[in-house]
Amino acid sequence: MKFAVSRFNPDTDSKPHMQTFEVAVERGMMLRDALLEIQRQDESFAFRHSCGEGVCGSDGMNVNGTNRLACITAVSDLKEPVEVRPFPGRPIIRDLVVDMSQFYQQYKAVEPWLVREDPMPEQEILQSPADRDKLDGLYECILCGCCSTACPSFWWNPDKFHGPQALLTAWRFLADSRDQATEHRLNELEGPYKLFRCHTIMNCVEVCPKGLNPTQAIGHIKHLMLRQGV
Amino acid sequence: MSRKLSGLGAWVLQRATAIYIGLFGVALLGVMLVSPPTDYAQWRNWFADPLVGIATLVFIVSILLHAWVGIRDVLIDYIKPLWLRVSLLALLALGLLTWGLWASQSLILVRLV
């Protein structure tokens, strides 16, 4: 099976180019396995990966035009030649390895932790099963970056727009019955950029390997703002 | 424009005006299908009706606000240099204002002349 992978060596190249490799496909082979085989053929080929089962979120990349995790993408489902590129819009460090700093900064900016005004209880903070259910579809995010790097609004304003990943996380904490910083969180999201650059393009929903829905989370945030503001 | 109005305010405004523009459009289409004015006198009489006049004025204002928020969004997305963005926004404001005043003037003239 033919694989065209993007190559970029910062020491010698001015821009990335595609290099084709032939890989013998085995039954049940995932794209990550194929990339490992390519690495055996050319050990200078670089890409990130770790757990190999869609949990760590390290091997996000652009495959035939769609952002996905290589480890849970079966090569048998892909059209030949398989074109593998780094995440769009991110500075390339080498081959498929990109600089995700801005993505993590946006995550950090939404204060992804529980904030309590009340004194901390001696034991855990209790939560009803119904309130716990509200976090389903939010807490599962693995920060792979597939969504934010597929978002045109994030491409144009990665320094100012939080992007779908960080906004999903923002809603994860707004929706948490144990969190007591709703007002502060909503105030932080005001203005034309952080939240409102989202134009419900929904690329994020399409590419999320965990099947999460950042667009819906963003809608929830807007409605909560409206309820608190009127 | 205040910071408040550029985020949630603009978003709500865009949606509210969209609903009105949609309703007005459907109503206008209905009138044109059921009993379209056939000559200039009928057109004038129709617009001279206070209800039609007010509804049309609200429509004009809705279009202005909707276009302002929408095009401003596009400019914020794509136009990075501040001087260029401000110039284009000023041009947009001028264009919208001109159109809005011209359209309102027609409505007022219909009632005066």
Descriptive report:
The complex is a heterodimer of chains A (230) and B (113). With 230 residues, chain A is α+β, with helices and mostly antiparallel strands. Chain A contains eight helices and seven strands, in the order ββαβββββααααααα. In chain A, the strands form two sheets. In chain A, strands 2-1-5-3-4 form a five-stranded mixed beta sheet, with helices on one face. In chain A, a hairpin with a 2-residue loop joins strand 3 (60-63) and strand 4 (66-69). In chain A, helix 2 runs parallel beside helix 5 and helix 5 (163-174) crosses helix 8. Chain A is elongated. The mean pLDDT of chain A is 96. Chain B is mostly helical. In chain B, helix 1 (3-34) crosses helix 3 and helix 3 (50-78) packs antiparallel against helix 4 (82-112). Chain B is elongated.
> Which class of secondary structure composition applies to the elements of chain B?
mainly alpha
Order of helical and strand elements of chain B: HHHH
Taking the sheet with the most strands of chain A, its summary is: 5 strands, mixed
> What is the gyration radius of chain B calculated from CA atoms?
17 Å
- Kindly state the number of beta strands of chain B: 0
Order of helices and strands of chain A: EEHEEEEEHHHHHHH
Main sheet makeup of chain B:
none
> Number of helix segments of chain B?
4
Q: Quote the beta fraction of chain A.
A: 5-15%
Quick take:
The complex is a heterodimer of chains A (230) and B (113). Helix content of chain A is 30%, strand content 13%. Chain A has helices at 31-41, 101-109, 129-133, 152-156, 163-174, 182-188, 203-207, 214-229, and strands spanning 2-7, 17-22, 60-63, 66-69, 82-85, 92-94, 97-98.
